[in-house]
Amino acid sequence: MEITLYEKQIKILNIYGPNKDDILLFKLLESPLFENDEKTYNIGGGFNTVLNSELDNKKGNPNHHHKCRDTLLEMMQVNNLVDAWRIRHENMKQYIWHSTKSPVIHCRLD
């Protein structure tokens, strides 16, 4: 969705990332998404990957979906994107998903 707010163009995207370590969605998003530097982007949704394994993962495999994580982190760095939640909650451990099997794993995947 594209909106104009106070004469500034904003693109709002909601995505649902893959449940497997497949970077195709993120690579497809990157080129058309950032061809216009004059817009502000707000990208949300479920990325299905953990960006910071120390803060966003409890008892899970820290290298789970590492290709997606590395691709997202690179995309964020190259395009000057930030994790708005992490900026506001710098060291907080809070999770949006947990497994139902033992051992119970907790993750922040958004």
What report would you give on this structure?
The chain has 110 residues and is α+β, with helices and mostly antiparallel strands. The protein is built from three helices and six strands. It has a three-stranded mixed β-sheet, with no helix packed on it. It is globular. The protein starts with a strand and ends with a strand.
Keywords:
110 residues; alpha+beta; Deoxyribonuclease I, Chain A; three-stranded mixed beta sheet; three-stranded antiparallel beta sheet; 3 helices; globular
Largest sheet: number of strands, sense, barrel closure: 3 strands, mixed
Count of individual domains: 1
User: Termini separation (Å)?
Assistant: 19 Å
Please name the CATH topology: Deoxyribonuclease I, Chain A
Low-confidence stretches: none
Pattern of helices and strands: EEHEEHHEE
How would you concisely characterize the structure shown here?
With 110 residues, the protein is an alpha+beta fold.
Strand-helix topology:
Layout: E1 2-5, E2 8-16, H1 24-33, E3 40-46, E4 57-58, H2 66-78, H3 84-88, E5 97-98, E6 106-107
Parallel strand pairs: 2-3
Antiparallel strand pairs: 1-2, 4-6, 5-6
